Amino acid sequence: MYRQEYDLTYDDLNPTFLFICNLKRTETEENYHSHEHLEISVVTKGYGTYYIDGKEYPIKAGDLIILNPGTYHRSLVTCPQCCATEYYIGFSDIHIRHMPPNTLPLPNGNMIIPMKDGMRQDVYRLCSAMGKEFHTCRPGRYFMLKSYLIQFILLLLRDQQEVMEEQNGCIFESPNKKYVVKQMIRYFNEHYHEKISLDQIAKNMYLSTFYVSKIFKSETGDTPINYLIELRMEKARELMEESPELSIQNVAAMVGYDDAYHFSKLFKKHFGTAPSKYRAIGNQ
Question: What is the CA radius of gyration of the chain?
């Protein structure tokens, strides 16, 4: 059986503890938001619903919710009689191999993890200890909180590894590849009009260019470059339909191309006609 362990060093797992709070949510959270730091919710009582990245997920006592940076979320109260009670834990400054900084793996892409009895007891114990320590003023308070947090993270990683090893006797190449691809698509959609380097994107994620290309194609069926080209061509088409007064050079520049001739070749390949003829047909 192939076994891959998370490689962790002092620099990889030297977390900065930010906060812990214990909250019974009786009203729906108004703000649909994301964080730059990691946040974990541990449900200790009741039931509830999370709205995460456009989808609703039911939660219950014994569930653990991983909210990596950039994950938009909102806690909903759908049953006032069975409100969820949760510990919220915030932290940053971890880095696991093959993962973006400050990101925890999501087994099979699942952000909500039902904890087994043994795992649940250990997690509840650590949450309770952190909660009590957080409200003390004893010497070494921060370092005690940090030590509990490290135990918490390692407990979670070990449990995830055991779960993945049970599936076909191996660990997936990257348990969080969906998150990486999602971030790449978001970047393309926000920066398609700029010069984009796949090498720089991979470097920013602390991954290899080969690796991000491989997982992008496995998740989308297309290469990152082809995805970007198709996105830019669709944006160019929209620009020409909405603003026919724009020159081909201007349209090319607005979707990230300095060379209008190169842009025209890509446009013709994508739509079967040159941009000048496409616009002429649209104006008839």
Answer: 24
Fold (topology level) of 13-166: Jelly Rolls (2.60.120)
Pairwise CA distance, residues 141 & 135, whole Å? 9
| Closest alpha carbon to 100 in 162, 181, 199 | 181
Residue ranges of the domains in the chain? 13-166, 177-282
User: What is the residue-level pLDDT of the chain in tens, covering all 284 positions?
Assistant: 333 445 566 567 889 999 999 999 888 998 999 999 999 999 999 989 999 988 999 999 999 999 999 999 999 887 777 789 999 999 999 988 777 888 998 877 789 999 988 889 999 999 999 999 999 989 999 999 999 999 999 999 888 776 555 444 333 344 467 888 888 998 999 999 998 888 888 877 767 788 888 889 888 889 999 999 999 999 999 998 888 888 999 999 999 999 999 999 999 998 889 998 887 665 55
The token pair that represents 96 in the structure block: 């696991």
pTM for this structure?
0.57
Give me the architecture of the 177-282 domain, per CATH. Answer: Orthogonal Bundle (1.10)
- Kind plus residue range of the DSSP H or E element containing 20: strand 13-24
Helix 141-166 and helix 117-134, axial crossing angle in degrees, nearest 10: 160
Residue 178, Cα to own-chain centre: how many angstroms?
8
Q: What are phi and psi of 116, to 5 degrees?
A: -70, 165
Q: Assign 56 to helix, strand or coil.
A: strand
Q: Which two tokens stand for residue 51?
A: 């709205």
CA torsion sign for 196, 202, 206, 209 is negative
Q: How many CB atoms lie within 10 A of CB 132?
A: 12
